[in-house]
Design goal:
The protein is of the alpha+beta class. The chain has one domain: RutC-like (60s Ribosomal Protein L30, Chain: A). Helix content is 21%, strand content 29%. A 6-stranded mixed sheet has the order 1-2-3-6-4-5, with helices on one face. β2 and β3 form a beta hairpin. α1 packs parallel to α2. The radius of gyration is 14 Å and the shape is globular.
């Protein structure tokens, strides 16, 4: 089994001892992304919608670095600081996943997220 680290300056640097993503055995495992601006490393957005958009922009950058896009995502996990934000996040999510076979997904409320983010999303994509 060969593992390859995927990293791009178009997404925030890892804030700990982990990779933005790892490619192995035909799959790309994207680490949880929070709404950090890749240039400044600061949180972006006051609303859940603004934060969700930034998270998806970060995920897109990582997928693109690996030669993939959202149509290649097979599974996503959405972590919310407030499950009451589920409907609003679903609206943003639908803008990125709306055609073809939609990914399997879990959405859960957690006690807290890094840097007091309202949302974090991780995903797995199938490589081409």
């Amino acid at each position: 089994m060969m593992k390859k680290q995927i990293a791009t300056g178009q997404a925030p640097k890892a804030v700990g001892p982990y990779s933005q993503a790892v490619s192995t055995d035909g799959f790309l495992f994207v680490s949880g992304q929070i709404p950090l601006d890749p240039e400044t490393g600061r949180m972006v957005g006051k609303t859940i919608e603004e934060q969700a958009e930034r998270v998806f922009q970060n995920i897109r950058a990582i997928l693109n670095e690996a030669g993939l896009d959202f149509s290649d995502v097979v599974s996503a996990t959405v972590y919310l600081a407030d499950i009451g934000d589920f409907a609003a996040v679903n609206e943003v999510y639908a803008g990125y996943f709306s055609e073809g076979v939609l990914p399997a997904r879990s959405a859960i409320q957690v006690g807290a997220l890094p840097k007091q983010a309202k949302i974090e999303i991780s995903c797995v994509a199938q490589e081409k």
